[in-house]
Design goal:
The complex is a heterodimer of chains A (389) and B (165).
Chain A lengths: L1 H39 L15 H11 L10 H18 L17 H22 L3 H32 L4 H7 L5 H4 L1 H14 L11 H4 L9 H27 L11 H21 L5 H29 L5 H36 L10 H10 L8
Chain B lengths: L5 H20 L3 H21 L3 H25 L15 H21 L12 H12 L1 H26 L1
Classes of the chains: A mainly alpha (389), B mainly alpha (165).
Chain lengths: 389, 165
């Protein structure tokens, strides 16, 4: 009997903490986003409600609570109402395996890393169902984009997670944190960290990968038809809850989890999560949005091969030098990351230039395309001979 | 939960059967697909009950995360009929019923007469044991299976590309 009571108490505590994490991030981060976005755009941002506008999220919350909850007349009512709940399971369930401090992990599963990836599926499901049930073309396109994007970027994410599992020698997240006692994995595997950041931002549908909710073309994507508290659910709690949970995962996998100098435990985790949230906000106010084809090309032709090479070499070194494999892996990873960062702009520029040329040349028939190289030189010289024939 | 709990199994089995019936009897394809998702999740629950956490996670990852999403994706992309579909109540259902009945009898006979070993993998972490089996004893079949899958993927891409032109 005592066991069952203990189990129930632990469950309630875990539930309250998990809900608190999501709600606090849903309140704080959208406000920070608007303030920092304003700051980076040399504007003021919301600064009227309370000192520096800190009560703005509460005002927003009251407004959304009192708004009418509209269900579109020709929507699929049950699925429309269910979709936010499905999407909400992801940020809740991911927190099950995250070690918040030395003593507090809700459940240290021995398949923790695999569990993390598996749970990510529910987020896609919520968006797909929400977009479809709204019976609105913008919502549907948004949901479909979300699904395509998240499935594509799940592969590089999975490959980097395997690298972490190789380094830690275990799938349990507690062991991953324990393995980082000496050195954080970001120093051993900066390439994996970079891929994890990029693929994670894409999984979260944040700028520059925010095509599913591209406001200038799709209104708000899959959440266009939602209003009132359901919209707040999607926009505030689920989106930013997912950001927090992703940041928690990234900190656990690469930044030593709750470990850190001077202070210990959850405080470091909060600091790390805030750094990641700032990164997301920074991206948001800096980068333009990608096109769909660029998005897919980047995932399949650049990220996946890179992370595959990284994974293979890491495994190779671990097998080859079982005693002292950290140094060679670190050197290789740093080299490949620096090369990636330096070469990426050049490759992208060439790709874009080629594409621009292609779209111009396709107007003159397919035979022109085979002569891209010679055309390019003409293009640069401003030679417009092709137009005459 | 260290011991096998029959109550939990019955609840999960009931869910599996109900949602499986839902897959074939819903008149809306999306509802069928979502019912299938719930069915897969219940199956994953049964795996957890049998201490096969690795298989449960793989079940959710592959069947819920990839296959179901792709099916829903495909349904949404194709302009499906706006009216109700009659999958369960079509003319072929009588024939299907006969086959299902025969299959049920065969499966029950085979599975009921099988002699299961009571020793389970529950005593030690099963993921390590699975890894040992897959990458040592059965490394060659494993590689062959991956090769077959790769060929299938390449073939599918090829077919899709050809159709476009």
């Amino acid at each position: 009997m005592a066991e069952i009571i203990e189990l129930i108490v632990r469950f309630i505590v875990a539930l309250v903490i998990a809900l608190a994490v999501i709600h606090v991030s849903g309140l704080v981060f959208p406000f920070l986003l608007r303030r920092l976005w304003g700051f980076m755009g040399d504007r003021l941002g919301p600064n009227r409600v309370g000192p520096q506008g800190i009560f703005q999220p509460i005002a927003d919350g009251i407004k959304l609570f009192t708004k009418e909850d509209i269900t579109p007349a020709r929507s699929n009512r049950w699925l429309f109402l269910l979709a936010p709940a499905i999407a909400f399971t992801t940020p809740m369930l991911v927190q099950v395996v995250i070690p918040f401090s030395e003593s507090y992990t809700i459940a240290d599963l021995n398949i923790g890393l695999l569990y993390l990836v598996a749970i990510g599926a529910f987020a896609v499901l919520g968006m797909l169902v929400g977009g479809w049930a709204s019976n609105n073309k913008y919502s549907l396109v948004g949901g479909l984009r979300a699904a395509a994007q998240m499935i594509s970027y799940e592969i590089p994410l999975l490959l980097t997670i395997i690298v972490v599992a190789l380094l830690a020698g275990s799938l349990s997240l507690d062991s991953v944190v324990a393995a980082q006692e000496g050195v954080w994995f970001i120093l051993v595997q900066p390439m994996s960290f970079l891929v994890f950041i990029i693929a994670g931002v894409a999984e979260l549908n944040r700028t520059p990968f925010d095509l599913p909710e591209a406001e200038s073309e799709l209104v708000s994507g899959y959440m266009t038809e939602y209003s009132g508290m359901r919209f707040a659910f999607f926009y505030g709690l689920i989106e930013w809850g997912n950001v927090t949970v992703w940041a928690l995962t990234a900190s656990t996998l690469f930044l030593g989890g709750w470990r850190g100098p001077f202070i210990s435990g959850p405080a470091w985790l909060v600091i790390k999560v805030c750094i990641f949230a700032f990164l997301i906000i920074w991206f948001f106010s800096t980068f333009p949005r990608l096109q769909v084809d660029q998005l897919m090309t980047f995932a399949w032709k650049i990220l996946i091969p890179l992370s595959l090479v990284n994974l293979t070499v890491t495994a190779f070194f671990i097998v080859l030098m079982p005693d002292n494999y950290l140094w060679p892996i670190a050197i290789f990873s740093w080299v490949i990351m620096i090369a990636f960062v330096l070469l990426m702009p050049i490759v992208v520029k060439r790709l874009l230039l080629k594409k621009r040329l292609y779209t111009r040349l396709t107007d003159y028939g397919p035979w022109v395309i085979s002569r891209t190289a010679s055309m390019r030189s003409q293009y640069y010289r401003g030679n417009s001979k092709q137009t005459s024939d | 939960m260290t011991e096998f709990s029959p109550t939990a199994f019955y609840i999960l089995a009931f869910m599996v059967v109900v949602f499986a019936i839902g897959v074939v009897s819903f008149k809306n394809l999306i509802h069928s697909a979502l019912s299938m998702v719930l069915c897969f999740i219940a199956v994953a629950g049964i795996y957890i009950l049998l201490h096969a956490e690795l298989i449960a996670a793989a079940q959710v990852l592959i069947y819920v995360g990839a296959i179901s999403i792709l099916i829903i994706f495909a349904i949404m992309l194709t302009r499906h009929r706006t009216g109700d579909l009659k999958l369960f109540f079509s003319r072929q259902s009588w024939l299907a019923l006969v086959f299902v009945a025969v299959a049920t009898i065969v499966f029950t006979a085979v599975l009921g007469s099988a002699n299961y070993r009571s020793e389970s993998l529950a005593q030690n972490p099963e993921d390590e044991k699975i890894a040992e089996l897959v990458f040592n004893s059965y490394a060659f079949p494993f590689e062959v299976v991956s090769l077959v899958l790769l060929v299938a993927i390449v073939g599918a891409v090829l077919l899709a590309k050809r159709e476009k032109q």
